[in-house]
């Protein structure tokens, strides 16, 4: 996932929102546990955050049981099988 642009950050926010709901955490509860402002988390989850600092993002992810990873950017176009596998993993 590429987070150097707004679309990447929107995807992260969407995934955070899904993970929060899956764990039955309220927005305020996750924000408090991660030590971030509720508005920051709301904007992130709704794709309206222009940017977020690493430490804030790392704390939010840690509360949800995730971590950031660095991987080389693939310059190859994904195959249909790759896209189907990725889609199945999102469900």
Would you identify the CATH architecture?
Orthogonal Bundle
Gyration radius, to the nearest Å?
Answer: 14 Å
Low-confidence runs: none
Major sheet characteristics:
none
- CATH C-level category: Mainly Alpha
User: Helix coverage percent of residues?
Assistant: 55-70%
Kindly state the number of beta strands.
Answer: 0
The separation of the N and C termini measures 17 Å
Q: What multimeric state do the chains show?
A: single chain
Supply the helix-strand structural class: mainly alpha
The overall average pLDDT, rounded, is 88
Number of domains: 1
Report strand %. under 5%
Number of helical regions? 5
Note the run of SSEs as H and E: HHHHH
| CATH topology heading | 434 Repressor (Amino-terminal Domain)
CATH homologous superfamily (4th level) name: lambda repressor-like DNA-binding domains
Shape call: globular
Structural write-up:
There is one protein chain. By secondary structure, the protein is mainly α. The protein has a single domain (6-71), classed as Orthogonal Bundle (434 Repressor (Amino-terminal Domain)), CATH 1.10.260.40. Helix content is 60%, strand content 0%. The chain contains five helices and no strands. The longest helix has 17 residues, at 6-22. The two termini are 17 Å apart.
């Amino acid at each position: 996932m590429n987070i150097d642009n707004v679309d990447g950050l929107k995807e992260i926010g969407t995934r955070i929102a899904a993970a929060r709901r899956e764990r039955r955490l309220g927005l305020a509860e996750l924000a408090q546990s991660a030590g971030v402002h509720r508005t920051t988390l709301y904007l992130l989850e709704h794709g309206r955050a222009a940017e977020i600092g690493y430490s804030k993002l790392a704390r939010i992810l840690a509360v949800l049981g995730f971590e950031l990873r660095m991987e080389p950017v693939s310059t190859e176009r994904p195959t249909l099988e790759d896209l189907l596998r990725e889609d199945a993993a999102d469900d």
